[in-house]
Amino acid sequence: MSTNSNLVTSPTLLGGLQKMDPASWGEFVKLYEPLLRAYVAHCIRRYNLGLQEDDRDDIRQNVLMKLWKTIPSFTLDHQGKGRFRTWLWRVTHNSTIDFVRRTGREPKASGGGVGPDGGEDFPPVAGPDPEPPTTLLEEHDWEMRRQILAQVKEETQASRKWDCFEQHYLLKRPSAEVATELGMSVSAVNTYTSRVLARIRELCRYKEVEL
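Below the sequence we write its predicted structure tokens.
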């Protein structure tokens, strides 16, 4: 599997979100919450805010509420690819800064001026970086792949399709060897492997993940 930090949200999933479909929203939260957590943590480290986990939860909830209200207006660009993860990055960054200012929290390290009460002002912020950190996107790509593999494994394990796929495709063992071990025909091993791989590719297309 290869890594592509420029992946974007699937138009299929995004289309469901824009229609306020509850199932699509649940899928979105499951898929993007790890990235949202990483974005919030990165902003906190960047400005040395030292927020507690409850504060981070508040920020994430604020972001999700904003997304629920604004996703219907999010549109794809002329190439048919919405830079959704960049948009999410900007929303998260701004929500973090808004939370700190609204609650009167101060950064732990100097970086701004001195406020009227003798405390530090929040460091000047011109705005979020144009693009989210590449490392966070790469980690999210791997998390999406992990979720896809876990889902397909759960779907196919009872029928032994996953065993065929794992042994023949992932571990690169000859189909004849796998067939003998599992007490199946070679054609069955190849067929099951192909079906599992097709399902994985289907989910990858849906979620815009490179296999």
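Residues 13 and 27 are 8 Å apart (CA to CA).
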